[in-house]
Amino acid sequence: MKNAPLNMVINRDMQGHAQGKLFLDDGYTTEQLEAETYEYYDFQLGGKSIKKWIGNPDSIVDNLKGLDAFVITNAEDLNGTDFACYTSMADRT
Q1: Tens digit of pLDDT per residue, the chain (93 long)?
Q2: If 0-12 CB within 10 Å is exposed, 13-18 middle and 19+ buried, where does residue 25 land?
Q3: Which of 49, 53, 87, 93 can pair with 42 through a Cys bridge, CB separation 3.0 to 4.6 Å?
Q4: Cα 32 off chain centre by
Q5: Per-residue confidence (pLDDT) for residue 35, from 0 to 100
Q6: What is the DSSP letter of 80?
Q7: From residue 89, how far is each of 15, 20, 24, 52 by CA, in Å?
Q8: What's this model's pTM, rounded to 2 decimal places?
């Protein structure tokens, strides 16, 4: 299942907010867990924005592909949203 899509399901509360943590490792060994070299992120959803903070930037590796999609539940108010954009907090690009 190494090439299976990786989707994050976001379950919003009644006010439209959600927050949580995501840990990504190779999925095959415990080496990254033991060495704490897994990718770790904090996410926050509010309004029409998803914010991501990198928990351990020194552990970002090229062999992990990251997320393919966000699936937001309880999101009838976002039905008309037809685009998304990304802004880097490092250089605002």
Answers
A1: 456 777 889 999 988 899 998 887 777 888 888 887 888 889 999 887 888 888 877 776 655 556 778 888 888 888 887 777 777 767 777
A2: middle
A3: 53
A4: 19
A5: 83
A6: T
A7: 26, 19, 21, 10
A8: 0.70
- Contacts for 37 with CB less than 8 Å, ≥ 6 apart: 31, 56, 59, 61
> Residue 57: left if φ>0, alpha if ψ -120 to 50, beta else—which one?
alpha
Tokens 């930037």 locate to: 57
Radius of gyration of the chain (CA): 15
What pLDDT, on the 0 to 100 scale, is given for residue 75?
84
Cross-strand partners of 51: 44
Other C-beta atoms lying within 10 Å of the C-beta of residue 22: 16
Residues 81, 62: Cα–Cα separation, whole Å: 31
For Cα atoms 7, 13, 18, give the angle at the middle one, nearest 5 degrees.
50
